Structures are given as C-alpha cells and as structure tokens.
C-alpha cells in the first residue's frame, strides 16, 4: 500500500509537470505571436509614390517625404508643384498617385471627376499678403487690400506708404492659394492682371524682395525663416498660427491630399506618417496648422 501511494504521488507530480510544460509552451507561442505582431506593425514600406499640386503644401509634403523615406529606405516619394488644379487633374488622370490641393476637388474638377477622388485632410494653411521689408507698410484694411488687388489703388501713398507705384505679383487661375486669398482676403473679387504671374512661391518672394513696391501673397510656411519680406496684418490682425487657431485671422484653408479611390499601402503609410501625433511638431515648425487645434470660432468664421 505504501508503494502504491508513492507511485500515485509520482504520477500526480508527472501530471503537474506535464501540464506546466504545456502551459509554458503555450505561453511561448502566444509570446511569439505577440512579437510577430509588433514586428509586423513596424514593417518597412516599399514602393514608389508620386505627388503634385499645391505649391503651398509642397514644403511640408517634401519634408515629410524625406523623413518618411529615411525610415523606409526601400520607398521612393517624389513631390512636384504645379498648382492645386494641376495636381487634382493629374491624380484623376492617373499620372500621379496623390494630388495636393489647397481647395476641395469640387472647386477645380467636374463633380463626376471629383467624386472618384478620396480626400485626406492633412493640415491647415494660413495665407499672408507680403511686401518688401523696406516699404514700411505693415497693416492694411480689408478694403485697402481689396482695392490694391483689383487695381483701384495703384500707389502706396494712398494707404499710408511712400510715393511708390504698386507692383502686383499674382497667381494663375489654377492656384489653390489664389482661390483661398480671393475668397477670404478680398471678398471674392477678381484680381487684376499683375506685373508678374507665377504659382512658384519662391519666384514670387524673390520678386517682392527685389522690388520695393511689390505685393503678393504666400502660405505662412514660406515666411517661417524669411526676414526679407513682411507678412501684412489685415485689419490689425497679424497672420500667425496663433491668430488662425483662435479665429482672429480668417485667411486660411485646409490642405488636402487626394488619392484616386482608396489609398494604396504606400499612399496610406505616407499620409498616416504626415498626420501622426509624432509628426505634429514638425508640421507646426514648418508654419502649418494642426487641424485638431482649430477652435470652434475659427471654423465657424471660416464657414460663413
């Protein structure tokens, strides 16, 4: 009986050990699965992506492309300008993967074409009128700004500046920046023909720097590190992210990245990278606004 009892105890011990081994193996399997999932979530993206369109969005799109490909060395991202209308038409035609735009697709394409595109809002952009730093004009009323861009005021002395002819630097009709400026800065009025028309913000800024009487408008992102031009206040309100967020400054719009239908793996990865919480600081450092920071007042004023 004693021997039988010892045998029974050994049997129970073996059963417990066996069960422990099974549980340990199961835990290892699940742990392995967990590691595999984590590895999968950080899987590097491969492939090529091309985008074109908004010159206002181009600096952010390019910086994000550089940072994205640095983390994904087998991915290639090419960013071109050309204006919002061009980018939207090209993504619809299939010649690029992403169309960058300062305006909604419906404003540049036929309704049937726009319906085939998927909108991804990635940031906000503030647009500022800019003048030469030596001009001495830092503020204009909405009425003065409108009359300048519609050709009713042609000399800076009429708005408190020097006796200097006004040189308009304007943008083509395909420009989304022009559409935003027209709607929110000059009350929907049509611009008069300028001395220079360009949708290249770098060219526009150079024209303003080299001509004391010049005035144009650019995205705030182009003024972050440029001290040779002055961003003009409108009705006493300075063009800044702070004033845009609060609703005090109303010349802004959403920045869009359009794909034709559902985004592909690399398109989604790139857009997700740009709009992630981890990248938000980079977005603001380049002069763009985070959509999540727009106040209710700002959105309400903008939708009027």
Assign an overall shape: globular
**What is the alpha-carbon Rg in Å?**
28 Å
The chain-level mean pLDDT equals 87
Number of strands: 11
The sequence of SSEs as H and E is HEHEHEHEEHEHEHEEEHEHHH
Helix segment count?
11
Sheet/helix structural class: alpha/beta
Determine the N-to-C terminus distance.
95 Å
Largest sheet: 9 strands, mixed
Q: Pick out the low-confidence regions.
A: 1-41
Helical content, roughly?
A: 40-55%
Task: Give the amount of beta strand, in percent.
Answer: 15-25%
Task: Describe the protein in words.
This protein is α/β, with parallel strands linked by helices. It has helices at 2-41, 58-71, 84-93, 111-114, 142-149, 176-184, 201-210, 241-246, 265-275, 280-285, 296-302, and strands at residues 47-53, 75-82, 98-101, 117-132, 139-140, 167-170, 196-197, 214-219, 229-231, 233-234, 252-260. Strands 1, 2, 3, 4, 6, 7, 8, 9 and 11 form a nine-stranded mixed sheet that branches. It has a two-stranded parallel sheet with strand order 5-10. The radius of gyration is 28 Å and the shape is globular. Residues 1-41 have low confidence and may be disordered.
Question: What's the quick description here?
Answer:
With 304 residues, the protein is an alpha/beta fold.
Topology:
Layout lengths: L1 H40 L5 E7 L4 H14 L3 E8 L1 H10 L4 E4 L9 H4 L2 E16 L6 E2 L1 H8 L17 E4 L5 H9 L11 E2 L3 H10 L3 E6 L9 E3 L1 E2 L6 H6 L5 E9 L4 H11 L4 H6 L10 H7 L2
Parallel strand pairs: 1-2, 1-3, 5-10, 6-7, 6-8
Antiparallel strand pairs: 3-11, 4-8, 4-9, 4-11
Features:
304 residues, alpha/beta, two-stranded parallel sheet, 11 helices, disordered N terminus
């Amino acid at each position: 009986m004693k021997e039988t009892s010892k045998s029974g105890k050994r049997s129970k011990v073996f059963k417990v050990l066996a069960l422990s081994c099974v549980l340990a193996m199961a835990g290892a399997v699940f742990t392995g699965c967990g590691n595999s999932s984590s590895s999968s979530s950080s899987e590097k993206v491969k492939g090529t992506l091309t985008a074109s369109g908004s010159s206002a969005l181009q600096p952010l799109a390019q910086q994000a492309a550089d940072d994205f490909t640095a983390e994904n060395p087998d991915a290639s991202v090419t960013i071109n300008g050309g204006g919002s209308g061009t980018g939207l038409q090209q993504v619809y035609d299939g010649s690029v993967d992403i169309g960058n735009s300062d305006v909604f697709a419906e404003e540049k394409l036929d309704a049937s074409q726009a319906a085939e595109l998927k909108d991804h809002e990635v940031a906000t952009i503030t647009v500022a009128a800019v003048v030469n730093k030596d001009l001495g004009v830092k503020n204009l009323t909405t009425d003065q700004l409108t009359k300048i861009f519609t050709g009713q005021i042609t000399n800076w002395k009429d708005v408190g500046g020097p006796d200097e002819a006004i040189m308009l630097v304007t943008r083509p009709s395909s420009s989304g920046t022009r559409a935003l400026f027209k709607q929110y800065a000059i009350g929907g009025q049509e611009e008069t023909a300028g001395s220079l028309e360009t949708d290249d913000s770098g060219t526009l800024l150079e024209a303003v720097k080299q001509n004391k009487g010049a005035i144009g408008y650019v995205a705030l992102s182009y003024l972050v590190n440029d001290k040779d031009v002055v961003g003009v206040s409108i009705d006493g309100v300075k063009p800044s992210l702070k004033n845009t967020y609060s609703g005090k400054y109303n010349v802004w719009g959403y920045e869009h990245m359009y794909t034709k239908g559902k985004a592909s793996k690399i398109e989604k990865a790139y857009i997700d990278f740009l709009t992630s919480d981890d990248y938000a600081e980079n977005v603001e450092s380049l002069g763009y606004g985070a959509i999540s920071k727009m106040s209710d007042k700002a959105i309400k004023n903008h939708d009027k």
